[in-house]
Amino acid sequence: MASWGERLAGVRGVLLDISGVLYDGSEDGGVPIPGSVEAVARLKRSQLKVRFCTNDSQKSRGDLVGLLRRHGFDISESEVTAPAPAASLILKERGLRPHLLVQDGVLSEFDQIDTSNPNCVVIADAGESFSYQNMNKAFRVLMELESPVLISLGKGRYYKETSGLMLDVGAYMKALEYACGIKAEVVGKPSPEYFQSALKEMGVEAHEAIMIGDDIVGDVGGAQQCGMRALQVRTGKFRPSDERHPDVKADGYVDNLAEAVDLLLQHADK
Amino acid sequence: MASWGERLAGVRGVLLDISGVLYDGSEDGGVPIPGSVEAVARLKRSQLKVRFCTNDSQKSRGDLVGLLRRHGFDISESEVTAPAPAASLILKERGLRPHLLVQDGVLSEFDQIDTSNPNCVVIADAGESFSYQNMNKAFRVLMELESPVLISLGKGRYYKETSGLMLDVGAYMKALEYACGIKAEVVGKPSPEYFQSALKEMGVEAHEAIMIGDDIVGDVGGAQQCGMRALQVRTGKFRPSDERHPDVKADGYVDNLAEAVDLLLQHADK
């Protein structure tokens, strides 16, 4: 494999995944991954541009940033690309009235959206709200539409909390896709539109940007599809088999964000 | 299209789906579909062989037969092919110890099976038991296995109860398949092994048998794949668009079981 110097040459902007890279979530707020608070601070003091690109759809962007700030991270709402606000914009543009299968914590992102007489379903990482009753309700809304529209905030398979692996929205998206015989529109990684909006907000071209994430498919594969480079951290939902993934090969594997930032500060933009 | 006489010539055995053909289920026992009680009785008085072939995995075979008998149907346990007893046999043969994601009502079918230290997951139509917590538990069992085995009792997309459409086990099977990156083994329609076991129990060859069901894919398509003929009834989960299905064309569409039996008694085995 090429040297780190070659692999990181010309990087001007860094997209950071949040869950599994900055911190491991849990019901009571989670814990920062060792070294990540300092790594973000060092990155932000450097000449590199930084943006956070999350698929978290359990919390509003404000709540997520508040939580991370309490953990000591230097982060503000305007630096975060998140699926719920992105979906809210799309709904407004297309005049869609969603039935929301989401957690209460993220409802505020849809405050401005008309949800009467729904003509689509928006599904997020609803956690405990993925009851049979709630799934069946969303299913029936879709089956009553002539052209069912299902918008999924990400399509992650699972993520890691301190208590263990947790099913993510992608599993439930697949359930509704199969039951209704439809294909969901994904707002979130690895959708190219989503990465491109994050790049635009950061003001960096794809070939000058690198994604750092714990998801070999959603983060690494998705970013590479957009022409970016991507590192996988061995934290969060990383599993050793990821390094032998049949389809996706990261531009590098690092133990954690701290190691990624060490390498970037040493080799990027040279 | 050929005449009914040509389409039904040489039929010696009839496989009957239960839910949506004999009765529409509901939480309080459901209601027989008009004419079906008499249709089953007429069929059983004829020279045709009859077997019931269900994907119902919510109830034990004994409970299902008890319910149908209370509705007036002439049916006994030995005439029913059902996925839970079929799966129970497979588990025994292969020495598999399942984690069961099923409703309490069907647990008795697995009485003889060791469920300690599970090395596979069996998923049935668990209804309200498809909570996030239960799904996550099954998911974690699979993720901890080196070669995860997921056995699904059917793969139906949805069925119809008197209260409306209900998500079926197939949707949740797809969720686990996607989350774990695996493929489930299906015990139930449209699995060819399942149809073949029903034919064997009836003592009729595929080309002499006809399936009557409300599911264009699971009943009609599955039976035709096995070399049987198949009629779709316009009851249960039937939707008008089924008659324009892109891949599956029934050998005939009838309003209900009563009409199917009229035609069979007139034209079969001639």
Secondary structure layout plus pairing:
2 copies of one chain form a homodimer.
Chain A: H1 4-8, E1 13-16, E2 23-24, E3 31-32, H2 36-45, E4 49-53, H3 61-70, E5 80-81, H4 83-94, E6 98-101, E7 120-123, H5 132-144, E8 150-152, E9 158-161, E10 164-167, H6 169-180, E11 185-186, H7 192-202, E12 209-213, H8 216-225, E13 229-233, E14 252-254, H9 257-267
Parallel strand pairs in A: 1-4, 1-12, 4-5, 6-7, 7-8, 8-11, 12-13, 13-14
Antiparallel strand pairs in A: 2-3, 9-10
Helix pairs in contact in A: 2-9, 5-6
Shape of chain A: globular
Strand content of chain A: 15-25%
Structural class of chain A: alpha/beta
Largest interface: A-B, 31 and 31 residues
Q: How many beta-strand runs of chain A? A: 14
Run of helices and strands of chain A: HEEEHEHEHEEHEEEHEHEHEEH
Question: What would you report as the Rg of chain A, rounded to the nearest angstrom?
Answer: 18 Å
Major sheet characteristics of chain A: 6 strands, parallel
Assembly type = homodimer
Please work out how many helical segments of chain A DSSP would assign: 9
List low-confidence stretches of chain A.
none
Strand order of the largest sheet of chain A: 5-4-1-12-13-14
Helix percentage range of chain A: 25-40%
Instruction: Give the N-terminus to C-terminus distance of chain A in angstroms.
Output: 19 Å
Cofactor (chains A, B): Mg(2+)
Function (chains A, B): Phosphatase that hydrolyzes imidodiphosphate, 3-phosphohistidine and 6-phospholysine. Has broad substrate specificity and can also hydrolyze inorganic diphosphate, but with lower efficiency.
Keywords (chains A, B): Cytoplasm, Hydrolase, Magnesium, Metal-binding, Nucleus
InterPro entries (chains A, B): HAD-like_sf, HAD-SF_hydro_IA, HAD-SF_hydro_IIA, HAD_sf, LHPP/HDHD2
